[in-house]
Design goal:
It contains 19 helices and 2 strands. By secondary structure, the chain is an all-alpha fold. Strands 1-2 form a two-stranded antiparallel sheet. α2 packs antiparallel against α3 and α7 packs across α9. The radius of gyration is 32 Å and the shape is elongated.
């Protein structure tokens, strides 16, 4: 073992004594400990009586109490039945954890799989590094190892269900499912899950999800990556004209139905299975079949924390919304510029002069993607004023095209 400092060779008793390196095994062997102590004191006293007394005092005052504490330390022991289920063992482990730092399911899986000679954390850190280097899921922020394992669990259980049609195999990614993952299962699906993350990243970017702050649901990555992964597994093309439109429809139905506000694991498992079956010729998934949304409800969404609010901003980016200042597509700015944001179409100050101060002023209907510098140039002016500035700068046709890129009628505005 190499600690905070380097030591010379200590493979012999003389070398141990010379460097003052007491081996731990002597602590529990009284005769060996006494012999080591006497040899240490004698070697460092250098045949000087006063120095001998000094070293004896040093040992009795500093080393001996430490040895007693170590020898008498009472290690807590919990006896478990050999046939106890793994999730129950993990539950006990969490209960006796006194560090104050919660144990994540990924950390528990890391410990479990280590016993199966699989170094999960090392694998994940390497995969995470490669994904980050390639800007994969850049808008996701920190990648979660637990979700990656959930993707593997969905893929593995769905394959098992298809291969055992007569057995009652459930497609799941719950906590207990992750704790029961075997090393061979993780190895089998690791590469496919990694490619699935890349495919999911491309899909999300194609949908205008270009920044963390406008990501509707981070949890939607779970079923999305699983869908991409299984399509890869069965040899399909995830971007084909057959699969892609169905994935798009399911994704946005899920966002605007707010399906991932709770019960994520159960919803993800159901959606994953149903969307794959739909792509393969089956019936529409529940998310699509039961979808019902009234445009009148958009007035109710006034906060960026809402998935629907964020979803509208993403769809504007997907539509190729251009900067009101005429500086080109906002999608590129949104991806690279942290100052890119959304602002009012009818500024608050202007609306207050018109006697409008209710929630409609901050509704997503009155918001769009506007660059920070462009928003400053608009100031508190009404569209009737700043659109004229746009026309004089860009020309009427170009200004109208910019406005249409925000799904706004120039004539109505």
């Amino acid at each position: 073992y190499r600690g905070l400092r380097d030591y010379d060779d200590i493979t012999s008793r003389d070398q141990e004594v010379a460097q003052g390196m007491l081996p731990l095994y002597t602590v529990f062997n009284p005769d060996d400990l006494v012999a080591w102590r006497d040899r240490y004191i004698e070697a460092h006293a250098e045949r000087d009586y006063d120095r001998l007394k000094e070293k004896q005092k040093e040992w009795d005052g500093e080393v001996a109490p430490w040895i007693v504490r170590m020898r008498d330390y009472r290690f807590p022991v919990i006896e478990l039945n050999r046939d106890m289920e793994l999730h129950a063992i993990c539950h006990i482990f969490e209960k006796v954890n006194s560090t104050g730092v919660p144990l994540t399911v990924f950390e528990l899986c890391t410990a479990i799989l280590w016993a199966q000679d699989l170094h999960l954390n090392d694998m994940w850190q390497e995969t995470r590094r490669k994904l980050a280097e390639d800007q994969v899921l850049r808008m996701q922020g920190g990648h979660e190892g637990a979700m990656f394992l959930q993707v593997i669990s969905l893929l593995a259980t769905f394959k098992r269900k298809r291969e055992n049609t007569e057995a009652r195999v459930a497609v799941n990614c719950r906590r207990e499912d992750l704790l029961n993952l075997k090393a061979e299962t993780v190895k089998e699906w690791w590469g496919i899950a990694t490619v699935a993350y890349r495919d999911a990243s491309k899909f999300m970017e194609s949908q205008g999800i270009l920044a963390q702050r406008i990501l509707p649901y981070g949890s939607l990555l779970l079923p999305l990556a699983a869908i991409m992964g299984f399509l890869r597994f069965q040899g399909g093309n995830v971007s084909s004209g057959h699969a892609w439109p169905k994935i798009e429809r399911w994704y946005w139905c899920s966002v605007f139905a707010q399906r991932y506000s709770s019960s994520v694991e159960a919803t993800a498992a159901m959606d994953f299975e149903q969307v794959i079956n739909w792509i393969n010729g089956g019936t529409e998934p529940e998310a699509v079949r039961t979808f019902n949304f009234s445009a009148d409800r958009l007035q109710d969404y006034t906060n960026i924390r809402s998935a629907i609010y964020k979803g509208i901003l993403c769809l504007l980016a997907r539509n190729g919304a251009k900067d009101f200042g005429g500086e080109g597509s906002l999608s590129v700015n949104l991806y690279y510029d942290s100052q890119q944001d959304h602002h009012h179409i009818f500024p608050i100050n202007a609306l207050s002069h018109l006697g409008i101060s209710d929630s409609r002023a901050n509704s997503i209907v009155n918001k769009t993607l506007i660059g920070a510098s462009t928003n400053r140039s608009i100031g508190g002016r009404l569209p009737s004023a700043y659109v004229e500035t746009m026309k004089s700068r860009l020309g009427e046709e170009r200004a109208s095209n910019v406005i249409r890129s925000h799904l706004i009628s120039p004539e109505t505005l």
